[in-house]
């Protein structure tokens, strides 16, 4: 049983991951914002991050941790000028404060979350938006904190994570939610290829990253979390259409692609000893089953 | 005559650079902190950065700029936990807000300041301290803002900049200041090699970077600002001793090296069409002459 501190625990991946961690006997503390809404769960300890080092330090003073899993992020393609400072605070400063506290209180395992949006046109690094740039910026800060080897880190590069109990306003969720009401959607031409990774597989990846961390070749190693093959957005919607049996009303091409749309994702080294198990068809079917049962 | 916005204008390099820019007919606006002390100079326009995008935007609304020269930084090897947030704010957020305003108001030339401390043991990237990591992090953010080519940037990698009228508590300044009072100094063993670059040469480099920016191979290009050869700290002090004729009282080895001391700096591509003109001996002599004349 490990003592785990997790950020982003109230988000889509965080909730699923916490559930699994608790189920497998781990002790979970979630670092949350004062504004986060949480259902009080006796199995989770909540601590509040007030935006200061003192509030992070207080968490480490109360308790020892084996691993910190860092999922919290302000993740969006567009960033208004007023959002720049909060985005840097969430995506860079919070993680840096965590690493500092880990160093100070002797916690040595860190799992970080990165994004394939850092890799426009397959470049080793070319971000498509400020969010992706801040993710790379934070990887660079991890490189400092892991330099002397007292902290070891894995950054997991995520692709398009999808699944059940997903509160995000992502297209798949909106299509499923509105499948009986004939709502019309204006979309891009839809030829961009996506690597869809099912939530249960992503949760597996975080668990595997925790286990594999002592064996990584570098103090900070970046691994991809992706399954086999990509699908165009059009293919994905068509598959969902077949599974639901209800045709969607979609105006393809009514919206433009992102200015730096990734049309064909690139793939770095995959997390060792981990494989995505759930195919896209299976994943979509599971979502629809869970949706029907709820 | 170019319209230039400069940050860090009240620092050592900034003051020298502004003087040269004004002397060569440029129009200089200095973005300063509310706490910065400035002597009112009719030839410089001062604007205040309040830590917000609104305060940066106000500067660009009042005036058009051809080039932004970004020198402001919180530059130090050690960083207490409480300094992490201010360091990220100064070294990452401020620059990002500048780039955002440049994008919004059509300013297309950006000169940034990086450090050789980003290159422990000659690595393409391995920072020796958080300051160096934040410098790299900001380079990553520049990569996003220069992606579409409307903004072009050069990051200048600086080494050990020294010179006259230097208010910093650096060793050379302290030795010169105390050369008649027999003050004793506890230092590291002193075998670390340093690339000393004279302030006038560094000012030349910023001017040359402005001129060269339209011809760089990439939208964001990183160039080194360094002269020929390195000297150990011991050699440098010995040279200064010879020039002043006064022996210093130094206990070599009484202090430890930095945990990740760079013993032998590495050198990336040098800024094209620029050469350091001032040798270390000449530079030290100029400092002593100016010191004697003042």
Name a few traits of the molecule:
homodimer, 294 residues, 36% helix, alpha/beta, seven-stranded parallel β-sheet, two-stranded parallel ribbon
Overall body shape of chain A: globular
Could you please say which CATH topology of chain A applies here?
Rossmann fold
Distance between the termini of chain A: 32 Å
Estimate the helix proportion of chain A, in percent: 25-40%
Largest interface: A-B, 36 and 37 residues
Largest sheet: spatial strand order of chain A = 3-2-1-4-5-6-11
Q: Regarding CATH, which class of chain A?
A: Alpha Beta
Describe this structure in words.
2 copies of one chain form a homodimer. With 294 residues, chain A is α/β, with parallel strands linked by helices. Chain A has a single domain (3-293), classed as NAD(P)-binding Rossmann-like Domain (Rossmann fold, 3-Layer(aba) Sandwich). Chain A is 36% helix and 20% strand. Chain A is built from 8 helices and 13 strands. The first copy, chain A, has helices spanning 12-23, 53-62, 84-105, 130-145, 171-177, 199-212, 233-244, 280-293, and strands spanning 3-7, 27-32, 44-48, 67-70, 109-115, 152-158, 160-162, 184-187, 193-194, 196-198, 220-225, 231-232, 249-252. A 7-stranded parallel sheet of chain A has the order 3-2-1-4-5-6-11, with helices on both faces. In chain A, strands 7-10 form a two-stranded parallel sheet. In chain A, α1 crosses α6, α3 (84-105) runs parallel beside α4 (130-145) and α7 (233-244) crosses α8 (280-293). Chains A and B meet through α3 and α4 of A and α3 and α4 of B.
């Amino acid at each position: 049983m490990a003592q785990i501190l997790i950020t982003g625990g109230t988000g889509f991946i965080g909730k699923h991951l916490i559930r699994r961690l608790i189920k497998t006997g781990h002790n979970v503390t979630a670092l949350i914002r004062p504004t986060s809404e949480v259902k009080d769960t006796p199995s989770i300890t909540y601590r509040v991050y007030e935006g200061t080092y003192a509030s992070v330090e207080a968490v480490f003073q109360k308790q020892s941790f084996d691993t910190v899993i860092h999922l919290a992020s302000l993740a969006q393609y567009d960033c208004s000028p007023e959002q720049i400072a909060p985005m840097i605070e969430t995506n860079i400063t919070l993680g840096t404060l965590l690493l500092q506290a880990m160093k100070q209180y002797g916690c040595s395992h860190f799992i970080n979350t990165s994004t394939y949006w850092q890799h426009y046109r397959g470049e080793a690094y070319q971000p498509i938006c400020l969010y992706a740039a801040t993710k790379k910026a934070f990887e660079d800060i991890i490189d400092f904190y892991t330099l002397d080897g007292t902290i070891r880190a894995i950054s997991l590069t995520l692709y398009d994570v999808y699944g059940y109990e997903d509160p995000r306003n992502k297209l798949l969720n909106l299509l499923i939610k509105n499948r009986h009401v004939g709502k019309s959607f204006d979309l891009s031409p839809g030829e961009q290829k996506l690597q869809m990774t099912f939530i249960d597989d992503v949760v597996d990846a975080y668990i595997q990253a925790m286990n594999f961390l002592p064996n990584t070749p570098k103090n900070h190693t970046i691994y991809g979390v992706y399954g086999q093959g990509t699908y165009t957005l059009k293919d994905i919607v068509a598959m969902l259409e077949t599974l639901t049996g209800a045709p969607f009303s979609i105006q393809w091409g009514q919206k433009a692609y992102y200015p730096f749309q990734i049309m064909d994702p690139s793939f770095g080294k995959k997390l060792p000893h981990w494989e995505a198990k759930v195919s896209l068809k299976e994943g979509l079917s599971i979502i629809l089953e869970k949706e029907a049962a709820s």
